[in-house]
Amino acid sequence: MQEVHVSDEEENMELKRLKANCTEDYAWTDYMSLPFTQNVISETLRMANIVNGIWRKSVNDIEIKGYLIPKHWCVMASLTSKIGVVAGNNCFTPFGGGNRLCPGLELSRLELSIFLHHIVTTYRWVAERDEIIYFPTVKMKKKLPISVQPINA
Protein backbone atom coordinates (compact mmCIF):
# COMPACT_ATOMS: atom_id res chain seq x y z
CA MET A 1 0.00 0.00 0.00
CA GLN A 2 1.40 3.40 -0.98
CA GLU A 3 1.36 6.21 1.57
CA VAL A 4 -0.43 9.35 0.38
CA HIS A 5 0.70 12.76 1.63
CA VAL A 6 -1.91 15.51 1.60
CA SER A 7 -1.18 19.12 2.49
CA ASP A 8 -3.37 21.51 4.44
CA GLU A 9 -4.02 23.44 1.23
CA GLU A 10 -4.97 20.33 -0.77
CA GLU A 11 -7.47 18.98 1.75
CA ASN A 12 -9.05 22.41 2.30
CA MET A 13 -9.32 23.11 -1.44
CA GLU A 14 -10.96 19.70 -1.89
CA LEU A 15 -13.52 20.53 0.82
CA LYS A 16 -14.18 23.90 -0.85
CA ARG A 17 -14.70 22.17 -4.23
CA LEU A 18 -17.09 19.63 -2.67
CA LYS A 19 -19.14 22.38 -1.02
CA ALA A 20 -19.21 24.49 -4.20
CA ASN A 21 -20.75 21.56 -6.10
CA CYS A 22 -23.55 20.83 -3.63
CA THR A 23 -26.30 22.72 -1.84
CA GLU A 24 -25.24 21.81 1.71
CA ASP A 25 -23.64 24.34 4.03
CA TYR A 26 -20.44 23.62 5.90
CA ALA A 27 -20.96 21.44 8.98
CA TRP A 28 -18.95 20.68 12.11
CA THR A 29 -18.03 17.27 10.69
CA ASP A 30 -16.60 18.89 7.55
CA TYR A 31 -14.02 20.79 9.55
CA MET A 32 -13.24 17.91 11.89
CA SER A 33 -12.73 15.60 8.89
CA LEU A 34 -9.60 17.49 7.78
CA PRO A 35 -6.82 15.35 9.33
CA PHE A 36 -3.86 17.44 8.18
CA THR A 37 -5.52 20.66 9.36
CA GLN A 38 -6.31 19.07 12.74
CA ASN A 39 -2.66 17.99 13.06
CA VAL A 40 -1.51 21.54 12.23
CA ILE A 41 -3.81 22.88 14.95
CA SER A 42 -2.62 20.31 17.50
CA GLU A 43 1.06 20.96 16.82
CA THR A 44 0.56 24.73 16.93
CA LEU A 45 -1.25 24.45 20.25
CA ARG A 46 1.47 22.19 21.62
CA MET A 47 4.30 24.49 20.55
CA ALA A 48 2.65 27.84 21.22
CA ASN A 49 0.62 27.16 24.33
CA ILE A 50 0.38 30.32 26.41
CA VAL A 51 1.47 28.19 29.37
CA ASN A 52 4.81 26.67 28.41
CA GLY A 53 5.42 24.99 31.76
CA ILE A 54 3.91 24.15 35.12
CA TRP A 55 5.73 24.87 38.38
CA ARG A 56 5.30 22.45 41.27
CA LYS A 57 6.88 22.19 44.72
CA SER A 58 7.80 18.76 46.04
CA VAL A 59 6.17 17.92 49.37
CA ASN A 60 8.54 14.96 49.97
CA ASP A 61 11.86 13.72 48.66
CA ILE A 62 11.11 11.98 45.39
CA GLU A 63 13.20 10.09 42.85
CA ILE A 64 12.27 10.32 39.16
CA LYS A 65 14.28 8.37 36.59
CA GLY A 66 17.30 8.25 38.87
CA TYR A 67 17.20 11.93 39.86
CA LEU A 68 16.47 12.99 43.44
CA ILE A 69 14.17 15.97 43.88
CA PRO A 70 14.52 17.02 47.53
CA LYS A 71 11.55 18.04 49.65
CA HIS A 72 10.51 21.72 49.11
CA TRP A 73 12.37 22.05 45.81
CA CYS A 74 10.53 23.61 42.86
CA VAL A 75 10.40 21.80 39.52
CA MET A 76 9.01 22.85 36.17
CA ALA A 77 7.27 20.44 33.81
CA SER A 78 7.73 21.64 30.22
CA LEU A 79 4.55 21.44 28.15
CA THR A 80 6.32 22.04 24.83
CA SER A 81 8.98 19.35 25.14
CA LYS A 82 8.61 16.18 23.10
CA ILE A 83 11.25 14.20 24.99
CA GLY A 84 9.72 11.04 26.38
CA VAL A 85 6.23 11.85 25.09
CA VAL A 86 4.15 8.81 24.22
CA ALA A 87 0.91 9.18 22.26
CA GLY A 88 -2.18 8.82 24.40
CA ASN A 89 -0.53 9.54 27.74
CA ASN A 90 -2.24 12.89 28.43
CA CYS A 91 0.86 14.95 27.58
CA PHE A 92 -1.14 17.16 25.19
CA THR A 93 -2.43 19.81 27.59
CA PRO A 94 -3.20 23.11 25.85
CA PHE A 95 -6.76 22.90 27.21
CA GLY A 96 -5.86 21.50 30.61
CA GLY A 97 -6.98 18.06 31.61
CA GLY A 98 -9.10 16.03 33.97
CA ASN A 99 -11.44 18.13 36.12
CA ARG A 100 -9.85 21.30 34.71
CA LEU A 101 -10.44 20.49 31.03
CA CYS A 102 -11.49 23.66 29.22
CA PRO A 103 -15.16 23.50 28.14
CA GLY A 104 -14.26 25.53 25.03
CA LEU A 105 -11.88 22.91 23.64
CA GLU A 106 -14.05 21.80 20.70
CA LEU A 107 -15.31 25.32 19.95
CA SER A 108 -11.79 26.69 19.75
CA ARG A 109 -10.68 23.85 17.46
CA LEU A 110 -13.69 24.57 15.24
CA GLU A 111 -12.86 28.30 15.14
CA LEU A 112 -9.24 27.53 14.23
CA SER A 113 -10.41 25.11 11.53
CA ILE A 114 -12.74 27.72 10.00
CA PHE A 115 -10.01 30.37 10.08
CA LEU A 116 -7.44 28.06 8.48
CA HIS A 117 -9.93 26.87 5.86
CA HIS A 118 -10.74 30.45 4.88
CA ILE A 119 -7.16 31.72 4.77
CA VAL A 120 -5.75 28.66 2.95
CA THR A 121 -8.49 28.65 0.30
CA THR A 122 -8.59 32.42 -0.23
CA TYR A 123 -5.00 33.72 0.14
CA ARG A 124 -1.35 32.95 -0.54
CA TRP A 125 1.36 34.35 1.67
CA VAL A 126 5.11 34.48 2.10
CA ALA A 127 6.57 34.81 5.57
CA GLU A 128 9.84 36.55 6.25
CA ARG A 129 12.51 34.57 8.05
CA ASP A 130 11.94 34.80 11.79
CA GLU A 131 12.99 33.15 15.02
CA ILE A 132 10.89 31.51 17.74
CA ILE A 133 11.41 32.77 21.30
CA TYR A 134 10.22 30.35 23.97
CA PHE A 135 10.66 32.38 27.17
CA PRO A 136 8.77 33.76 29.01
CA THR A 137 6.07 32.76 26.47
CA VAL A 138 6.25 31.48 22.90
CA LYS A 139 6.43 34.30 20.36
CA MET A 140 8.17 35.29 17.17
CA LYS A 141 11.14 37.65 17.49
CA LYS A 142 10.02 39.91 14.58
CA LYS A 143 6.30 39.07 15.06
CA LEU A 144 6.36 36.95 11.85
CA PRO A 145 5.80 39.58 9.15
CA ILE A 146 4.06 38.17 6.06
CA SER A 147 3.04 39.38 2.62
CA VAL A 148 -0.52 38.32 1.73
CA GLN A 149 -2.12 38.17 -1.73
CA PRO A 150 -5.63 36.98 -2.69
CA ILE A 151 -5.54 33.79 -4.77
CA ASN A 152 -7.49 35.43 -7.60
CA ALA A 153 -4.99 38.30 -7.96
From TrEMBL:
It is a single-pass membrane protein. The lineage of its organism: Eukaryota, Viridiplantae, Streptophyta, Embryophyta, Tracheophyta. The keyword Nuclease does not apply. Gene3D superfamilies: Cytochrome P450. GO terms for molecular function: heme binding; iron ion binding; oxidoreductase activity, acting on paired donors, with incorporation or reduction of molecular oxygen, NAD(P)H as one donor, and incorporation of one atom of oxygen. GO terms for cellular component: membrane. InterPro entries: Cyt_P450, Cyt_P450_CS, Cyt_P450_sf. SUPFAM superfamilies: Cytochrome P450. Belongs to the cytochrome P450 family. It is found in: Membrane. One of its GO terms (biological process) is brassinosteroid homeostasis. The keyword Oxidoreductase applies. Its main location: membrane. PROSITE patterns: CYTOCHROME_P450. It comes from the Eukaryota. This is Cytochrome P450. Keywords: Heme, Iron, Membrane, Metal-binding, Monooxygenase, Oxidoreductase, Transmembrane, Transmembrane helix.
